[in-house]
Amino acid sequence: MNAKFAALLESLCIKTELIAPLKAQLNLIWQDLNKENENDLRDYKTQLIEVEKKLETIEEKYYLNNEMSKDVFEKFQNKLQQQRNEINQLIAKTGSGISNPENAIEKALQLSTELAIVWASSDYSRKEKLQNLIFPEGIYYNRENGAFRTTRMNAVFSLIASLLSNSGENKIGQNGVNSILSYSVRPLGLEPKTHTLKVYCSTN
Description:
- The chain is mostly helical and 204 residues long.
- 62% of the residues lie in helices and 5% in strands.
- The protein has helices at 2-10, 19-64, 70-94, 101-112, 115-121, 124-134, 155-167, 177-180, and strands at 139-142, 147-149, 199-202.
- The chain has a three-stranded mixed beta sheet with strand order 2-1-3, with no helix packed on it.
């Protein structure tokens, strides 16, 4: 399994001379993918303003004008406060990207030039961190068909894999990373999640 995982990482490796052109492509793709996030963030902030206004209205009716009973006020207040909390969570999640995506893309590309070497020379702790970086939600190995599966791959490495396959630079080709893995390419930010990640074995 270790050899197969090393081969998987090898398929993500790029040549040094490809860093500049891939960086330019990745920056353009990243900007395009995050336009949707920017629109969502704008919508959430508008919704938050509307909820805040509604809260102010019921508070004014209850505290200043005595136009609302306590039971009715608390009912609407709890509902609106819950909506506010949910919207704030969506805002935090949608706007959780790093401040300098270009720098993150460049670092990922630099790492990709020696990904397999770094893996082979790393101790257990560093290998676990490397897995966390590339596969934020875990990666599973099916012993029956010898395939890896994951639900999400780091956005930058996902794009690198796609570009390498399309350019023919990926040695495993179209049957490589993109077929070995099942993941979502829609990024919410370049920073990986911080929870522990391990390779799991499955007989299913």
